[in-house]
Amino acid sequence: MRDVSLWGALLGVEKTVIERIEFDEDADVVVAHVRATSRQRSRCGVCGRRCAGYDRGAGRRTWRALDLGTVRSVLEADAPRVTCREHGVVVAAVPWARHDAGHTYAFDETVAWLATQSSKSTVTQLMRIAWRTVGSIITRVWADVDAQHDRLAGLRRIGIDEISYKRGFKFLMVVLDHDTRRLVWAAPGRTSATVREFFNLLGEERCAQITHVSADGADFIDTIVAQTCPNAVRVADPFHVVKWATDALDEVRRGAWNDARALARKEPRRGRGRPRSDALPRPGSERAKALKGARYSLWKNPANLTDNQQVKLAWIAATDPELYRAYLLKEGLRVIFALPYTAAVEALNRWISWARRCRIPAFVKLQKSIVKHKPRILAAIEHGLSNGLIESTNTKIRLITRLAFGFRSPEALIALALLSLGGHRPVLPGRK
Predict the structure, then answer these.
(1) What is the pLDDT of residues 137-162, one digit of tens each?
(2) Backbone phi, then psi, for 180, in 5-degree steps?
(3) Domain parsing of the chain, residue ranges
(4) How far apart are CA 91 and CA 44, in angstroms?
(5) Domain 157-236+387-421, CATH 3.90.226.10 — does that match?
(6) Strands 71-78 and 29-36: what pairing?
(7) Which of 64, 149, 189, 387 is deepest in the core (most CB within 10 A)?
C-alpha cells in the first residue's frame, strides 16, 4: 500500500489529496496538509453545486480528525470562498467535513455513535471535546440522516404525548409510530401550535392515511386530530385513564390523612422519651402514620402487593370504608381494559353508574371525564392500542435528557433522541 493511501485510510478521508504529514512535537499533534481533488474543488459548501471562485477566504484552517493512537491529529487546508447563485458568498465545500464544521466526517460519526451508546464522561474524555461540542455534532449528524430518510413515510397508527425535559415547564411533544415502534418526530412545546406543526409537516395526503391516533385525552390534541385526520380513530390511552383514577384515589387518601392529622392535633401531647404504660392512646396520630405509609398499598396492582402491603390494605378495608371504596373504583376501572370489547362496554357503563352515585367527590368528578372520553376509551379496548409504547419511550428520553444536560438548545436533545430511538442509529466509520 502506498503511503498516501495508508494515510488516507488512517485519517478516514476520501476524495482528498494528502500533500505531506508533519508532527508538531510542541503541541503533540499530527498535522496532515491536504487539499480536495480537482473534481471536488470550487463547490458551494451548502448545496455542493460547482461555483465560481470569490477569494482565498481567511487563509488556511484546520479540522479535527480521529486520534492516531494516543496522539491527536488534524487536517490543514486552504479555505477559499466561492459565489453560489443560491447561497451567495460561502466557504467552499471540502470532501472530508461538513459545511461550517470543525471536525471530519469520521470524527462526527464516531462521536454520534458514542453518544448513543455510552455515558457523557466516556464521550468527552475519549474524544477530548466539551459536551456542548457533542451537542453540535449530534445536531449535524442527525440533519444528514434526516435528509436521507423520510421518517414520516408510511405512518398509519401514531401516538402523541408530551414529556418534561427541563425545569420551568419546558416540554417536548413526541410522536411515535405504533407499527415500527420508532420515534418519528419531536419538538419543544406543549401547545396546539406544536401539534399542528407536526400535521402541517405530515401534509394533507399523508394525514388522510392515518387510521389511529392515541393520546392522553388532552382536548387541544383531540381537536387538532379531528380537524387534520377526520378519518382516524381517536384512542384514549388506558395508562392515562387509569392514572386519572389513581390520582382521584390519592386525593381521597390525602383527605383521610388530613382528617387524621386534624384529630391528632387535638390529642394531648406526650413528653420526651418512651411513653408510660398507662399513657392515653393517640388514635389520630397512629392513623395518620398508617395512612401515610399506605400509598403503595393502594396504588399497586393486587397481584404485586407484598405481604405487608396486603395487611395494610386489609386494615384500610376494616377501618375506612370510603377510602376502600375509592380503591375498588380504581381497580374496577383498571380491570375493564383487560376485558373483551363486548364485556368492557357493559362493565364501563356499570362503572360509570357506580362512580356517579358513590358519594366520593373525586370519583364523581372523574366519571364525568370518563363519560366525555367514553368513545375513545372503548376504541382503545377494541383496537388494543395504548400509549404504553410512548411511556416506555418517554422513560428512555428522560435518561437521554439527563445525559443531554448542558446542551445549549432542545434541538440537540431532540437530535440525540431521534438518533437513539428513531431507527437510524449512527454507524462507526469503516464498518458500514
Answers:
(1) 999 999 999 888 888 998 999 999 88
(2) -95, -10
(3) 1-96, 157-236+387-421, 238-265+282-383
(4) 7
(5) no
(6) parallel
(7) 387
Q: Are 34 and 16 in contact (CB under 8 A)?
A: yes
Q: At 281, is the secondary structure helix, strand, or coil?
A: coil
Q: Where are the alpha helices (DSSP H) in 89-237?
A: 105-117, 120-127, 131-148, 192-202, 204-207, 219-228
- Is residue 186 within 8 Å of residue 173, measured between CB atoms? yes
DSSP labels, 62-107: EEEEEEETTEEEEEEEE--EEEETTTEEEEBPBTTB-TT-SBBHHH
Reported as a pLDDT band with limits 50, 70 and 90, residue 329 is very high
State which H helix or E strand residue 37 sits in.
none
Percent composition of the chain: helix, strand, coil (DSSP 3-state, to 5): 50, 20, 30
**Residue-by-residue DSSP string for 333-344:** HHHHTTS-HHHH
How buried is residue 84: exposed, middle or buried, by Cβ count under 10 Å (0-12/13-18/19+)? Answer: buried
Q: Which helix (H) or strand (E) holds 318?
A: helix 307-319
CB neighbour list of residue 430: distance below 8 Å, 6 or more residues apart = 12, 106
Tell me the backbone φ, ψ of residue 428, rounded to 5 degrees.
-65, 145
